[in-house]
Write a structure and sequence with these properties.
The protein is of the alpha/beta class and about 425 residues long. The protein is about 30% helix and about 25% strand. The longest helix has 19 residues, at about 415-434. It is globular and about 90 Å long. The N and C termini lie far apart (about 75 Å).
């Protein structure tokens, strides 16, 4: 599944009618060994990043039964694999009603939600997916929809939908993991991650594991081959290796065992979710929870993946996500301010939002320097901070060579060190001239 664009069809909060947000992936890209399944949405605070993704999430959350709950009008265009071909699909909401166009099938057919299935008795005509009124039904077009929408988000103000309750009758397209619930507690109050841990073990012992686990190892973080398993009403840490991992996976897939935690080694100490750092816990939990839900043709939204991580982890985020999910033909969208994530991708993969619009990026973002990236995206908000102003003032107003030399010795490589160097040369010249 590859999202192509989202179009705003009526004014909604900061978005204006006609605004289009393009999610290009391959156009104009260079060879950078990164799977072309990623987009980054970035921009200053309040630019519409979370709003755009929450609209997309709510749109698909309501598509099976509750069309009238979608109180905005948007158009979503994407490509998806169906049978042996790739289809272009356009879905839009208009005044609480949903319409769909499918390449080589039909155009702008009204989607009847699940609650109306028996009432309208939709029967395909001539083996087509719609009736004489140009109506189709959610059940009939479900195969042309994303397999799932996986959310790893911070729903601080309730922007995103909640998971449907267990007794919900209908399709649960969204899989929501609200990471804010990890603060001050453990992960047991969130949806189960048994399937994710099971897939993690498969990645470790059967798949091409080297890149993902080697990246973790380079960060001083290594899987300790132990999982916390709840089996036959007994909770215990179980050693896992090539001889028994398949049995553990089979028990979890059959619903006979639950996998609740993993052990890692950091600085020669054994850690798990209960004593990891906040950043480690959030990232590992997010990777495991996404592994629990991701499939081919899933759409995955990851909000602020850099939270609480140091520079070394931030630099490896794209590598970790790329190698963890490379087996899945899914589209992954990051909402981020992290420059190391932004400059890991080509500029056509980066959506830069400003005041509810998508702005063109002039520079090539791939491996662009951090300062250049800041100037490219936030030049209008760039201003010197207090410490910078103080340094400039001292350099400009001080004529004491020893003081300027001390300032120079305490500065890192920067424009300010160069200014101090110039002042030193000037003062030395004045002294020699005398």
């Amino acid at each position: 599944m590859r999202l192509k664009y989202i179009k705003i069809n009526s004014d909604y909060l900061i978005f204006k009618k006609g605004e289009v947000f393009n999610f290009n992936l391959n156009e104009g890209s260079i060879e950078n060994n990164i799977n072309q399944k990623f987009n980054v949405i970035t921009g200053s605070n309040g630019s519409g990043k979370t709003l755009l993704m929450s609209m997309l999430s709510n749109f698909f959350h309501n598509i099976d039964r509750f069309h009238e709950r979608t109180n905005f009008d948007i158009e979503i265009f994407y490509e998806i694999k169906y049978a042996e071909s790739t289809k272009q699909v356009t879905i839009n909401s208009n005044a609480g009603k949903y319409y769909i166009s499918i390449e080589d099938e039909f155009e702008n057919a009204k989607i009847l939600p699940n609650i109306y299935y028996r009432r309208y008795n939709i029967i395909p005509l001539d083996e087509k997916l719609y009736n004489e009124k140009n109506q189709t039904h959610f059940i009939l077009i479900k195969g042309y929809l994303p397999k799932s929408i996986v959310l790893s988000i911070f729903s601080i103000h309730g922007e995103y939908p909640n998971n449907r309750h267990r007794q919900y009758i209908g399709d649960k397209m969204l899989r929501v993991y609200d990471i804010s619930k990890l603060y001050g507690t453990n992960h047991f109050g969130l949806p189960t991650i048994t399937r994710g841990i099971s897939r993690f073990l498969k990645l470790m012992f059967t798949d091409d594991r080297s890149d993902f686990f080697e990246t973790l190892k380079s960060l001083g973080f290594e899987f300790n081959n132990h999982v916390l398993i709840n089996y036959d009403s007994q909770l215990e840490w179980k050693h896992v290796d090539n001889s028994n991992f398949q049995k553990i996976v089979s028990l979890s897939e059959a619903g006979e065992a639950y996998l609740n935690d993993l052990q890692f080694i950091r600085n020669e100490k054994i850690i798990d979710f209960s004593n990891m750092s906040t950043g480690e816990k959030m990232l590992i939990y997010r990777i495991i929870s996404i592994l629990s839900e991701i499939e081919d043709d899933s759409l995955v939204i990851v909000e602020e993946p850099e939270m609480h991580l140091d520079f070394s982890w931030n630099r490896q985020l794209i590598s970790l996500f790329d190698t963890a999910f490379k087996a899945y033909n899914a589209h992954i969208i990051f909402i981020t301010h992290n420059p190391y994530l932004i400059n890991s991708l080509n500029k056509n993969q980066v959506l830069f939002l400003k005041n509810g619009t998508q702005n063109e990026i002039q520079s090539n973002t791939f491996q662009l320097g951090i300062e250049e990236l800041f100037i490219e995206m936030f030049d209008d908000k760039f201003s010197l901070n207090t410490s910078e102003l103080n340094v400039i003032e001292k350099i400009s107003k001080t004529d004491n060579l020893d003081v300027i030399q001390k300032i120079y010795d305490n500065l890192g490589n920067s424009i300010y060190k160069y200014l101090a160097f110039q002042k030193i040369q000037k003062l030395k010249g004045d002294v020699e001239g005398k």
